[in-house]
Design goal:
The chain is α+β, with helices and mostly antiparallel strands. It is built from seven helices and 24 strands. A six-stranded antiparallel beta barrel has the order 9-10-11-14-13-12.
Length: 394
């Protein structure tokens, strides 16, 4: 009779495994200074321009200086200056007020504005201005900390809003001209120019989740530019300025923008649901590589160890097994996810990147190491039903 091998771990390994997930999550994040495929059915008229907006001449027919002037004159009225206020109460009941600011872009005539999540995170009051002294109250419609993007909406949008058209960030080339409009250090609607310095740059949101394919630019970006548009020479938004690499906190010519195609994918969900619906595995996972670094001996050298499985989730439906303990107190290794659809899963970033490409309801093939053997398990991806946030910005 064939026997199945059950991998057992020592008491030391049990202890290390219990804490390793948290330790790995605190891994080194690049020294990025942060400031501060599904279109849902939605009636919001979000612009997607393939040609230059009216008022911007063919860049090949005018000087570079004239192009700068025309892009700024045409697009800057649609760049929002966002001011945030938050309140905290100390032990004695004294309330302190915190203020911040950032930038955003009007994306439709309903008054929806895309910005960075970190610009509005924790805010209890929002106001928006478009130059001058007039301000408009706004509220948070939805936010996605995983991509550092959010949508806010003017409560009483004025007529004649300038909409910033959305371009295509998949067609960019290193060296092409870009323009940034924002509110650095509170200086409203400031224009800076530069080029695309690099593409496909990996950056991280504040929650540690990877944001793939970021746009690197040498256009000057500073605190206050967060959430503002990175534009091409036709005036189309191709990125949302988000981070800079700077040891001292100021611009050194290495800035990063979230590609607009990521925004185009999630904005409709933020408007409709208040958050992004993503497929979930529904298991507590930790990378094999991280455990090996902690001195834990395992029968495989890569993959994601299933520590536990949450009921009613993708992992539960797939029959995945987590770490268990027998009557003798020995801890037994359960399943290790080696691949998904043939792609190796070396760490949690690999999993996040893969799931970002999938939709709830898709069927995937899990390559799983179990009891000394590797098997493939088909499973339908599930997700958690988003609920619109009840907190309202006053």
């Amino acid at each position: 009779m064939a026997t199945k091998s059950v991998y057992q771990m020592s008491a030391r390994q049990i202890i290390v495994l219990a804490f390793s997930s948290a330790l790995i999550a605190v891994g080194a994040v690049a020294l990025l200074y942060n400031f501060g495929r599904v279109w849902s059915t939605d009636t919001s008229p979000i612009a997607f321009a393939e040609t230059a907006p009216l008022g911007i001449s063919d860049p090949a027919q005018v000087s570079d200086e004239q192009n700068n002037i025309e892009v700024y004159k045409t697009i800057s009225p649609g760049v929002a200056f966002i001011n945030t206020t938050s309140y905290t109460q100390d032990f004695w009941g004294d309330v302190s007020e915190g203020k911040g600011n950032g930038s955003g872009s009007v994306i439709d005539t309903n008054g929806n504005i895309v910005t960075n999540y970190h610009v509005i995170e924790g805010a209890q009051k929002l106001t928006v201005s478009f130059g001058g002294d007039k301000t408009y109250p706004a509220k948070v419609i939805g936010g996605d900390p995983d991509t550092d993007l959010a949508v806010i909406r003017l409560e009483n949008p004025p007529a004649g809003l300038t909409v910033v058209p959305l371009g295509d960030s998949d067609r960019l080339t290193v060296g092409q001209k870009v323009l940034a409009i924002g509110n650095p250090f509170g200086l409203d609607r400031t224009l800076t120019t530069g080029v695309i310095s690099g593409l496909q740059r990996p950056i991280r949101a504040r929650n540690g989740r990877p944001i793939d394919a970021a746009i690197q630019t040498d256009a000057s970006i500073n605190p206050g530019n967060s959430g503002g548009p990175l534009l091409d020479k036709y005036g189309r938004m191709i990125g949302i300025n988000s981070q800079i690499l700077s040891p001292a906190g100021g611009s050194v010519g290495v800035g990063f923008a979230v590609p607009v195609n990521i925004a185009k994918r999630i904005i409709p969900q933020l408007i409709r649901y208040g958050e992004v619906k993503r497929p979930k595995i529904g298991a507590d996972l930790v990378s094999v590589a991280g455990l090996l670094d902690q001195g834990i001996r395992l029968p495989v050298d890569s993959g994601l160890v299933v520590r536990s499985v949450q009921p009613g989730t993708t992992a539960a439906n797939a029959g995945l097994k987590g770490v268990s303990q027998d009557m003798s107190g020995n801890v037994r290794l359960g399943d290790v996810i080696m691949t998904i659809d043939g792609e190796k899963m070396n760490d949690m970033d690999d999993l996040y990147r893969y799931l970002d490409k999938k939709q709830i309801g898709d069927t995937i093939q899990l390559g799983v190491y179990r009891a000394g053997q590797t098997t493939t398990i088909p499973v339908k991806l599930l997700g958690t039903q988003p609920t619109r946030p009840t907190r309202r910005i006053q």
